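Figure 6 in text form: structure in, sequence out.
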């Protein structure tokens, strides 16, 4: 062996000592690397021979087009290989020339093999040899990367230690970037191949052909390697943003793999796979998410590590610089080499950090998208019991707050470990600088972290409490905003506003606790560098470690570099805690119980079974509790095509039976089987924001003929003529610009158009007028005798008020002929038309039989029909003679729609585009924030404290720089003065942190109060034209950002910017020559910032407005979940949700991409400034600068990049956060209603005493630019009279009621009540003196007592008495808690009829002289209606009662009847006079009603 070693190594001694192994100039090192090269070449040759193609003429490389990355890698690594080969040949030639022998072999053989290896592997990887499969390519690139990395590290240590740089060592160092390029090429090759494959996922909506266009639209998807690394792909968007104000259509789409659909399907795939592998395993959502994004996490982690390594080289270069400045140069031009190295180190640091942050943010976007999608999907399947625990407001919070917080976490994730790695590297550097004194630094760091542990636990606790308080406040706010019309009618706004303020105060208590912990954390970590330097320099003094410029400023530079990561620790802790709390909440929601829809609907069945329903001995319970069934012992067989009517008293279980058939109610016993497709019409109309056409089509394709017939049969033709854009009129949220009847008819049209097998209609005709109900019912049955009866009735479709029975038959008879129909109804008139009538009571089916059989056999049914006869008022109708009828045929009606074309212009639609600020708002939003409760005072003092702290730090280091090598200043004095300045400056840190908390709390409190006051004082017109999602996104997501992020965001922006300017100032003062470079660079940076902000601000604003789309769609879907499930439209709604998530994610993605684009260019500028300063120090004569000030300048210069990034990052963050203040401010100044109280003009306490209402030429329009809705109505309601208001749906009945309560102010005319013009007094004085039972019965989350008397004005005794009068006493007494029984959100645990009875109870409690009944008994049975009519007659005998009615008997008892048509008063007289008057519309209606009633009797 000795002969071999002497031949290989020559005269050099060969040793296996580790010291020689790591020495790049040693023989053993050369031997090991040569062996590795030979092994790699043999493997490559073996694979090539084994897989040699049969037709070599076709070439070795594939036809794949090479990317720029592959070309650059091929050129760079090919050149590296050639240089190695040339060096090997040159060494061999030199050996032969000098010694006439090729020995020693080590160096030239090593270089020869190195050259061959680099050339071979480079060709294999970059030019894509067909014989090499991807695993082999990956293995080669990873092996080369590892060996090159080790070799590069050894060479660097060798150069720094020996101060000797040879060409061989330089090649070793350069080989590492080459290896990185090879590794990236392998990855890029894999990515490209994947893109060429078929898509893994088929889109939910089946539009796979669109994927190509989406990829074409995605700028990032088309970017090559250099474009990705430099963010060059952002240039077109930045340019577009500079040239014009960006709109939604200008924002490029996301890549396919970044879209919500791909992310969600990937997540679902991994989750299902996990469950299949181990079904018993609790599905870990967190680990599934990590698994989905593990590749991206690892890549961003690699860049994070590269950044830490790059930044840690800085102090080592600084140490060398000081030695060069002192004249200790290792080799000629070392200063220049160091300056260039400094520049490249900073560029590498910049590239790696930008990619780390960008890729981490992208992971965050994808995680947020998939969680939002998962939440939406879950709420569509949520069971009733789970819905009680997760209200609509809470679900909104999960999306707007919790998913957002979790989406922010990946950005901070790598900070958790990179800070630790950076600290460890820093400790190693410190050990080189100050030896054992480093232990003191370590102790302080450990102590700081230990001090933070209890704070972190408290932070977690308080954050959890804050989220719960936020949920409670949001639940109350969303409920109040949703029912604002009811609150205004009852004059309860102030009370509800006060209760929300109380909840907000609880939230503020927890918010102050969270912010204070954050302030303590901030103080602890910002002051820790001072503590570390105190401990370390103290230890140096006691351990007699000598302090010189080189070791002191290596120490200071290292400390300054580690300062920023340490300062972000409180943020990291805060984000981790917030994400953890949010995640726990989301997991609880995602694991909540779901509806068990399996086995209810048979998907495959014979046609003769289609439309049948079979329920056998079944119990159903809303609570999913067999011991508490809601429906008991249900047996029901419905054959295909049969019509079944369900009747019974209020609360008997009619709606629950339909819900059970829809599988909304858990089946605790027995079986239920349903065959066919559903169409469902809910009792409370659910209307989407969008056009009337979209609501009717409901995702189905447009069939013009079928659509026209549907409109005709749903009696919508006349309405469409009244709307400005016909069926293309935009409907407001929840149908706010439609009357109750119009909403129900749109629902009925939606059901009819679907062509289902089974139609479930839950009392849809309670809200429609007689004429409309007549038309609608007709479509449902196919009974011949009724068709004969209706031939005469169909002729009157164009007349204003029609017979109840005839219109309804139009819907049921023709439209639903041959369909299975189940109709819940209180209208006894319809029952004879049905094949069977099902009578229910107390959750059981009493009897099911045809109408006449049931009438003969059931006493309960007889009572129901008798009550109806009584309410029909037969005694007053007997002498009415029939009269001439109008004759407009149904054919004419169809023509009306066909001939009329509607314009779809968006100009004057009700729902406007969401407003957003345009252009640069400057400091306006900041001033809006700081002007709250003198916030600018707190802010100013905090800024002064921060500047004082920065000046303190500069003074500290200046003292050290000036005196470190001064023999006249003792070490003790040097350290003591240094520490004294340090500790004094930290006191200002504490002041700054506490003032920030105070400012944040005051501003949040003030902003919320102004927002709340503005919203509660806003007129109804604002709510009619503003979707609830827009308001909720502000009071949830935006307010959360203002509470938690804005105060510290402002502070950190100021702190980071002051640090950055301090660094630049120190650099300029010490080396003033650098100003020649830095001034142009600063001008360039300012211009670049302006260019950036033009695009960035609009992207941030678009992110805010598109956020509302997601919130709006979610709120709408939560409200209509039952309808969506019934029509089996979950997939379509989910696909729309995925689209809206992407629409929102795209501006956010491009916002942070623009941020990275900007910072990368700024960092390049700062790297140029730093390198220039370093060159100044090298070029200028020795002695120009003292070594102390060189150390100080460079220690500040090294952190220039980091501080610049920290500064810009925080400025961008606060710019992003301040958009939330802008958005809150938009709704803080809504033009308000008239004053609640006008002190100088208050009505007497007993007003109104008589109840006389005089209306003079009343004109109403909803918006200044809208047409008149009421056109000059003049009439007088005498005190104590009972007034009935009748008219077709949409004629203006509810508008007249709105005018009486001043929900809308008159455009002309006046209303005088007991001598007082209602427009002259305050709104609260007006509304609190009137009683009303609104059309939509509304209950609030709370107790029965709270719902009856939210202002706590009445005793329990009075409430019980009223409940008895309303037929509710028994229902409430059955509950264990009595008056404290719970009422869930929207009163969902009480039937619709019971809710209306509660509203009646409120009116009875208030005892107003004027009572308004807006179709108050629409949802209750005739027997209950009869009792209530008697109750109202008794209780309000002396009062003026104004009744808006759709049932004829309801107004027969009235003193006078007012008929309205198209906003004009048609007739106003006593009912009997109107019936006798020739051509009276009211008389016409009553006659037809009575003729129908007698006809029904005869059957």
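Output sequence:
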């Amino acid at each position: 062996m000795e002969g071999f070693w002497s031949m290989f190594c020559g005269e050099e001694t060969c040793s296996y000592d580790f010291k020689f192994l790591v020495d790049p100039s040693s023989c053993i090192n050369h031997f090991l690397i040569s062996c590795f090269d030979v092994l790699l070449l043999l493997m490559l040759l073996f694979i090539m021979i084994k897989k040699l193609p049969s037709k070599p003429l076709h070439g070795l490389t594939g036809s794949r087009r090479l990317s720029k990355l592959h070309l650059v890698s091929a050129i760079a690594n090919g050149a590296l290989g050639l240089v190695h080969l040339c060096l090997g040949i040159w060494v061999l030639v030199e050996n032969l020339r000098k010694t006439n022998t090729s020995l020693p072999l080590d160096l030239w053989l090593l270089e020869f093999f190195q050259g061959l290896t680099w050339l071979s592997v480079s060709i294999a990887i970059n030019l894509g040899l067909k014989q090499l499969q991807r695993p082999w390519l990956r293995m080669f690139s990873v092996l080369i990367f590892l060996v090159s990395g080790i070799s590069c590290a050894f060479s660097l240590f060798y150069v720094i230690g020996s101060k000797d740089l040879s060409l061989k060592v330089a090649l070793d160092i350069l080989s590492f970037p080459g290896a990185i390029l090879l590794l990236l090429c392998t990855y890029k090759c894999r990515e490209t191949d994947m893109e060429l494959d078929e898509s893994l996922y088929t889109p939910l909506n089946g539009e796979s052909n669109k994927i190509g266009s989406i990829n074409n639209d995605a700028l990032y998807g088309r970017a090559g390697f250099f474009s990705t690394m430099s963010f060059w792909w952002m240039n077109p968007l930045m340019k577009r943003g500079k040239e014009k104000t960006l709109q939604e259509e200008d924002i490029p789409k996301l890549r396919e793999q970044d879209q919500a659909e791909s992310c969600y399907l990937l997540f679902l795939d991994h989750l299902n796979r996990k469950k299949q592998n181990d079904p018993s395993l609790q599905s870990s959502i967190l680990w599934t998410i990590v698994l989905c994004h593990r590749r991206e996490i690892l890549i961003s982690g690699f860049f994070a590590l590269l950044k830490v390594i790059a930044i840690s080289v800085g102090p080592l270069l600084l140490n060398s610089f000081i030695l060069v400045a002192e004249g200790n140069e290792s080799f000629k031009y070392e200063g220049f080499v160091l300056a260039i190295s400094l520049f490249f180190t900073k560029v590498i640091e910049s590239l790696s950090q930008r990619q780390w942050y960008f890729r981490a943010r992208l992971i965050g976007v994808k995680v947020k998208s998939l969680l939002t999608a998962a939440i939406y999907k879950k709420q569509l399947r949520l069971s009733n019991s789970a819905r009680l625990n997760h209200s609509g407001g809470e679900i909104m919070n999960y999306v707007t707050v919790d998913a957002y917080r979790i989406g922010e976490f990946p950005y901070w994730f790598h900070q958790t470990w990179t800070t630790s790695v950076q600290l460890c590297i820093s400790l190693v550097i410190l050990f080189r600088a100050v030896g054992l004194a480093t232990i003191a630094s370590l102790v302080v760091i450990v102590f700081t972290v230990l001090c933070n542990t209890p704070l972190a636990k408290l932070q977690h606790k308080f954050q959890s409490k804050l989220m719960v308080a936020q949920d409670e406040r949001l639940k109350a706010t969303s409920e109040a905003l949703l029912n604002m019309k009811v609150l205004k009618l009852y004059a309860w706004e102030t009370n509800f506003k006060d209760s929300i303020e109380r909840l907000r105060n609880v939230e503020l208590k927890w918010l102050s606790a969270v912010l204070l912990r954050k302030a303590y954390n901030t103080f602890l970590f910002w002051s820790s560098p001072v503590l570390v330097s105190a401990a370390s320099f103290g230890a140096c003094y006691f351990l007699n470690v000598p302090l010189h410029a080189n070791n002191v400023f290596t120490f200071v530079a290292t400390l300054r570099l580690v300062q920023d990561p340490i300062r972000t620790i409180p943020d990291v802790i805060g984000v981790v805690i917030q994400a953890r709390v949010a995640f726990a909440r989301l997991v609880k929601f995602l694991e909540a119980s779901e509806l068990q829809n399996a086995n209810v609907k048979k998907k495959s069945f014979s046609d003769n079974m289609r439309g049948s329903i079979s329920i056998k001995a079944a119990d159903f319970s809303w609570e999913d509790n067999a011991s508490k069934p809601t429906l008991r012992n249900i047996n029901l067989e419905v054959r295909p095509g049969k019509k079944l009517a369900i009747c019974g008293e209020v609360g008997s279980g009619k709606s629950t039976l339909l819900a059970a058939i829809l599988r909304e109610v858990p089946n605790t016993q027995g079986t239920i089987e349903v065959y066919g497709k559903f169409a469902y019409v809910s009792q409370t109309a659910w209307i989407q924001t969008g056009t009337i056409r979209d609501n009717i089509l409901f995702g189905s394709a447009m069939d013009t003929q079928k659509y026209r017939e549907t409109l005709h049969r749903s009696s919508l033709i006349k309405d469409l003529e009244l709307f400005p854009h016909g069926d293309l009129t935009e409907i407001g949220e929840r149908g706010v610009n439609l009357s109750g009847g119009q909403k129900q008819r749109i629902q009925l049209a939606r059901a009819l158009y679907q062509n289902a097998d089974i139609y479930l209609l839950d009392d849809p005709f309670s809200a429609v007028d007689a004429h409309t109900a007549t038309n609608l019912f007709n479509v449902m049955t196919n009974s011949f005798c009724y068709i004969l009866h209706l031939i005469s009735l169909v002729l009157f479709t164009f007349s204003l008020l029609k017979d109840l029975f005839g219109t309804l038959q139009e819907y049921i008879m023709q439209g639903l002929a041959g369909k299975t129909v189940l109709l819940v109804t209180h209208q006894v008139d319809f029952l004879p038309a049905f094949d069977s009538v099902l009578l229910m009571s107390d959750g059981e089916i009493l009897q099911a039989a045809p109408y006449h059989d049931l009438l003969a056999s059931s006493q309960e049914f007889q009572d129901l029909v008798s009550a109806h006869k009584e309410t029909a008022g037969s005694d007053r109708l007997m002498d009415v003679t029939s009269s001439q009828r109008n004759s407009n045929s149904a054919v004419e009606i169809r023509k009306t729609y066909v001939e009329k074309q509607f314009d779809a212009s968006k100009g004057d639609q009700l729902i406007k585009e969401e407003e957003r600020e345009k252009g640069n708002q400057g400091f306006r939003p900041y001033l809006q924030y700081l002007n709250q409760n003198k916030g600018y005072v707190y802010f100013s003092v905090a800024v002064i404290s921060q500047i004082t702290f920065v000046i303190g730090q500069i003074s500290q280091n200046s003292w050290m720089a000036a005196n470190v090598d001064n023999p006249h200043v003792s070490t003790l004095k040097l350290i003591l003065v240094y520490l004294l300045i340090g500790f004094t400056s930290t006191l200002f840190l504490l002041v700054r942190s506490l003032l920030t908390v105070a400012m944040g709390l005051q501003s949040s409190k003030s902003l919320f109060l102004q927002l709340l006051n503005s919203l509660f004082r806003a007129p109804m017109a604002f709510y009619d034209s503003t979707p609830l999602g827009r308001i909720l996104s502000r009071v949830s997501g935006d307010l959360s950002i203002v509470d938690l992020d804005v105060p510290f965001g402002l502070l950190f922006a100021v702190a980071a910017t002051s640090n950055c300017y301090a660094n630049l100032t120190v650099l300029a003062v010490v080396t003033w020559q650098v100003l020649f470079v830095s001034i142009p660079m600063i001008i360039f940076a300012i211009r670049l910032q302006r260019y950036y902000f033009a695009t960035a601000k609009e992207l941030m604003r678009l992110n805010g407005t598109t956020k509302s789309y997601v919130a709006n769609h979610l709120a709408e879907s939560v409200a209509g979940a039952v309808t969506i499930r019934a029509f089996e439209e979950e997939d379509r709604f989910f696909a729309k949700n995925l689209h809206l998530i992407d629409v929102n994610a795209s501006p956010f993605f491009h916002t942070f991409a623009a941020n990275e684009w900007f910072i990368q260019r700024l960092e390049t500028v700062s790297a140029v400034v730093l390198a220039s300063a370093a060159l100044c120090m090298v070029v200028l004569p020795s002695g120009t600068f003292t070594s102390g000030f060189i150390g100080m300048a460079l220690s500040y210069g090294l952190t220039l990049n980091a501080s610049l990034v920290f500064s810009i990052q925080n400025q961008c963050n606060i710019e992003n956060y301040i958009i939330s203040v802008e958005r809150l401010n938009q709704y803080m100044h809504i033009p308000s209603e008239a004053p609640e109280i006008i002190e100088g003009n208050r009505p007497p306490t007993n007003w109104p005493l008589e109840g006389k209402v005089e209306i003079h030429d009343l004109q109403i329009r909803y918006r200044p630019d809208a047409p008149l809705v009421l056109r000059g109505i003049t009439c007088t309601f005498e005190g104590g009279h009972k007034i009935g208001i009748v008219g077709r749906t949409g004629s203006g009945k509810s508008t007249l009621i709105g005018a009486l309560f001043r929900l809308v102010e008159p455009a002309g005319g006046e209303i005088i009540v007991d001598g007082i013009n209602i427009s002259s007094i305050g709104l609260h004085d007006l509304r609190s003196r009137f009683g009303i039972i609104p059309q939509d019965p509304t209950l609030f989350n709370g107790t029965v007592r709270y719902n009856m008397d939210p202002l706590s004005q009445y005793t329990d005794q009075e409430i019980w008495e009223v409940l008895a009068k309303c037929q509710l006493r028994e229902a409430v007494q059955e509950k264990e808690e009595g008056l404290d029984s719970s009422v869930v959100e929207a009163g969902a645990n009480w039937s619709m009829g019971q809710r209306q009875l509660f509203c009646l109870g409120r009116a009875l409690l208030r005892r107003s002289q004027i009572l308004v009944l807006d179709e108050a008994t629409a949802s209750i049975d005739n027997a209950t209606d009869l009792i209530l009519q008697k109750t109202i007659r008794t209780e309000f005998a002396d009062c003026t009662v104004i009744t808006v009615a759709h049932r004829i008997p309801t107004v027969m008892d009235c003193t006078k009847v007012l008929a309205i048509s198209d906003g004009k008063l048609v007739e106003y007289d006593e009912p009997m006079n109107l019936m006798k008057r020739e051509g009276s519309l009211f008389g016409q209606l009553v006659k037809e009603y009575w003729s129908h009633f007698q006809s029904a009797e005869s059957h």
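Caption detail: The chain is about 65% helix and 10% strand.
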